[in-house]
Amino acid sequence: MIEARGLSKRYGDLVALHDVSFSVQPGEVVGFLGPNGAGKTTTMRILTGFLPPTDGVAAIDGHDIFSDPLAARRAIGYLPESPPLYPEMSVEGYLAYVAKLKDVPRSARSKAVDSALDRCGLGDVRRRVIGALSKGYRQRVGLAQAIVHDPPVMILDEPTVGLDPIQIREIRSLIGSLAGEGSARTVILSTHILPEVEAICRRVIIMNRGRKVVDAPLDELRQTGSLEEVFARATTREIVTEEVAS
Ligand SMILES: Nc1ncnc2c1ncn2[C@@H]1O[C@H](COP(=O)(O)OP(=O)(O)OP(=O)(O)O)[C@@H](O)[C@H]1O
Ligand SMILES: [Mg+2]
Q: Are 163 and 236 contained in the same domain?
């Protein structure tokens, strides 16, 4: 469903990503972890077609991100690190606009908007202007715009950042329900909250200094220690991949 092959990104002398490859199967929910600056957002921006890699290829649902960008993007719901919300638009007006951009047929649009409002707990604020919402509600709008066209692939960059504990729990359960057992939806979500990964994800990818240093089922990782210990081990060594390979 998601294929990344040999992705690299350089900014001048800085290597933000180095030869990152992974594939994610339909229905998989992957936690994307790593310290600040590890390359999580960079990877997600490449996968969603917002940033060209220096090297490598990526495909979503069989569509190459660069040769077939429209089809690839249509298959994705993306919650960026800072969602491009339009502060002067109403919540429902904005979601209808996104649905149109995402090619939801006119006849299906209002149902798609209602369903996204409902799933993100936005029914009570649907006519409010986005700029007047609290941060948590704006984050919900960000999530609603990522799911309004019911995409098979969701790429969520720190979906619960800055939310209060109750909202974190609600958004977490929303993501859990979108990607629950038996769902064919594929999800990659980045976070710094390890219990979040333990609550939602079955597989974990850990990035460090632009490299993929861990890619394994959560159950398997837990056999060698807590996720926190695994994270600390993987991100305090210089280059783990080379050590494992040799
Ligand atoms: N436009 C840019 N120009 C130069 N360097 C950049 C640019 N965007 C990102 N970087 C660098 O690329 C590296 C990876 O950044 P990235 O945003 O992918 O990290 P991240 O894992 O998402 O971190 P965080 O947890 O802080 O969100 C960092 O060193 C960052 O400074
Ligand atoms: Mg980031």
A: yes
Structural domain that includes position 141? 84-151
Last residue of a domain, one of 123, 151, 179: 151
Tell me the CA–centroid distance for residue 42 and ligand 1, in Å: 6
pTM of the model: 0.91
Q: Are 201 and 190 in contact (CB under 8 A)?
A: no
Spatial distance between the Cα atoms of 191 and 35, rounded to a whole number of angstroms: 10
Residue range 151-165, pLDDT digits in tens: 999 999 999 887 788
- Say how far apart CA 225 and CA 4 lie, in whole Å: 28
Task: From 140, 149, 151, 75, select the one nearest 108 (Cα to Cα).
Answer: 149
Query: Under a CB-based contact definition with an 8 Å cutoff, are residues 141 and 91 in contact?
Result: yes
Return the residue matching tokens 């800055």: 162
| Structural domains in the chain (count) | 2
Specify the ligand 1 atom closest to the Cα of 158. Answer: 27
